[in-house]
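During the reporting period the student researcher (J.K.) took over the structure-prediction task from the postdoctoral fellow and processed the backlog of single-chain submissions. One of the processed entries is reproduced below for the supervisory committee.
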Amino acid sequence: MTTIEILAEAGVALARQPLTASQRHHAQRAVVDWASALLPGAVQAPAQAVAQALADDLDHGRSRLASGRPATARAAALVNGTAAHTVEVDDIYREAIYHPGAPTISAAWAVAQDVAADGTQFLQAVVAGYELSTRIGTALGRAHYRYWHNTGTVGCFGAAAAAAALYGLDSTRFAHALATAATFASGLQQAFRTDSMSKPLHAGRAAEAGVLAAQLARAGVTGSAAVLDGETGLGRALGERGAGGLDWSAALVDLGQVFHIEAMTFKNHACCGHTFAAIDGALALKQQMAISADDIASVQVATYRPALEVAGHTQPRTAAEARFSLFYVVATALRFDRVRLAAFSDERLQDPQTRALMQRITLTVDPAIDVAFPARRAARLTVTTHGGRTSSRLQPTRKGDPELPLSDADLDDKFIELAGPVLGAQRAHAVLGRLWSLDSARALPDFAA
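J.K. obtained the following structure tokens:
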């Protein structure tokens, strides 16, 4: 059997088998976190511009945008997927360097509404999408992340698997959906190395591509079973460049036995996840040393190379660039003790004390930390005060990682903080309660109701 066929059989099984209590709970956690990212993103420029561009696909169909506006399944997946990745608070599967929630759950939500699925069927589809796509991302490895944005490329598979599960495709058509999704896979890192709105579109396009791939397979469109393994397939094109091609077997060995959705990272800061260890370490040193930002003469940050490559903006001009600036987010954390949505307001971006502190921060690659990436995301910080005091700290992981997880209560607080201004406090609490009760819901809740 080809890798696509193995994945398809596993996907059908995952879509049909009852979830354990743990799997169900972690799937609900992922959905709550996705909604926390979706709702504030839905009122931002990228998602609203996408909705405007897709006007012909709106106001009819059985799916819904976050605003409650009717849409076709594909349009809803594209707009909601874009929204869910816009404010940079969506989940991470660390080993795959990948945000599964924005593409996978956006696709599953749109298709579940399209076919009137119940909450349990929806959660099963989410699990199927997470389990298949995270393994593909893990197999593609660090080499893939050099040029490609995994949430765009790998996200197509999560979306296709979730959609195929909800459309009830058999293993043959499920395989065709995954195979077609493979040739749709795209998303270049250069799109967010400079200022643009393209990065959230990667998640939205992946969600839409997955839905379309499943719809095509349902209609009888076939894909290449060797699209991952073949000599000109995705493994050779986008993965490690070894003579024998990519070895998929290691990533698939525990499929259906170990559930990656139970080992997610949920963001505690509203910016690039590569900056989190540095932020957490800076905050810990500030508290330990009992100092203010004005006391700091210098901050040295040593971390893994991709963090510097992706989040190395020295003088960010826009919110999008600031979210990918270690200089900015570490300085902001030291000034204001947190890096949430307010950190990227125009006023904060121009804050003179933050800008001055940025000039006193240096970044380097720590070889020992770098070799552990992507399985570990660490940073080593040294802070020196104007009075000559110096203290150092190794931050071995990030708050929100599986080793230091956000609790359910933390996720509730995150949802209310991010969704409350959009929905209003009373409706936000009501929606949150319905999201935690999806396993017994006959239909998905309407955010706008």
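The committee noted the following: The beta strands are 58-64, 70-71, 296-303, 361-365, 379-385, 390-395.
J.K. will present the remaining backlog at the next meeting.
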